[in-house]
Amino acid sequence: MAQRDRLRHRLDDGLAVLGLDLSDAIRVQLIAYVELLARWNAAYNLTAVRDPGDMVARHLLDSLAIVPHVSGATLVDLGSGAGLPGIPLALVAPQRQVTLVDSNGKKARFLREAVRSLKLANVRVVEGRVQDVPGQFDCVTARAFATLADMLDWAGGLLAEGGHWLAMKGKLADEEIAALPAGFRVEQVVVLDVPAVVGERHLIVVRRA
């Protein structure tokens, strides 16, 4: 229980800094997700972050920092890995349909277990390449997945008309933005201030040109 209390305090403090007012039920689910990830991580090596307290900051709060920029009824999270940012975003907006995509079998297994364990009725998991995902989505998210050019070349067709692509990055590379494929434009670059996370964090918002 002491561990859970420690995680909850860290989450509560971080949400206050981010200005996010989430219900107690959602906060409980977010901590349950971190606990599940920590258990699976011991055997499956899903993330280099080992300490659950660090997971709260570097995974949960990092993902939740983009909440003000997410909109639309449908979202696809490319290269979702352990479900980041897709699962935290699905938890805070249960009315949004979220698709998690990863080609790695063990990560896809974890994602399916998280959907089952957390009872995420609004989430589905696609095990496969981003190039093969059907449909279009109001919002596309990708966290440290690939260069902007590669992401848009592989999966730009997933972005619905009027939708927006949210690319989460660390240090900003001007040459990466300059290499944006035709048909897309950078609408905004947001500096993210993630509580208890050291290092630069940026969000690049891309729309159809």
What descriptive keywords fit this protein?
single chain; 209 residues; alpha/beta; Rossmann fold; seven-stranded mixed β-sheet; 7 strands; 40% helix; 23% strand
Which helices and strands appear, and what pairs or packs with what?
Layout: H1 2-18, H2 24-44, H3 52-64, E1 74-78, H4 86-92, E2 97-102, H5 105-117, E3 123-127, E4 137-143, H6 148-155, E5 159-169, H7 174-178, E6 184-191, E7 202-208
Parallel strand pairs: 1-2, 1-4, 2-3, 4-5
Antiparallel strand pairs: 5-7, 6-7
Question: What do you see in this structure?
Answer:
There is one protein chain. This protein has 209 residues and is α/β, with parallel strands linked by helices. It has one domain: Vaccinia Virus protein VP39 (Rossmann fold, 3-Layer(aba) Sandwich). Helix content is 40%, strand content 23%. The chain contains 7 helices and 7 strands. A 7-stranded mixed beta sheet has the order 3-2-1-4-5-7-6, with helices on both faces. Strand 4, helix 6 and strand 5 form a beta-alpha-beta unit. The longest helix has 21 residues. The chain is globular, with a radius of gyration of 16 Å. The model has no long low-confidence stretch (mean pLDDT 95).
State the CATH topology. Answer: Rossmann fold
Structural class determined from secondary elements:
alpha/beta
The CATH class name reads: Alpha Beta
Q: How many separate domains?
A: 1
Any idea what the shape is? globular
C-alpha Rg (nearest Å): 16 Å
- CATH architecture assignment name: 3-Layer(aba) Sandwich
The helix content is 40-55%
TL;DR?
The protein has 209 residues and is an alpha/beta fold.
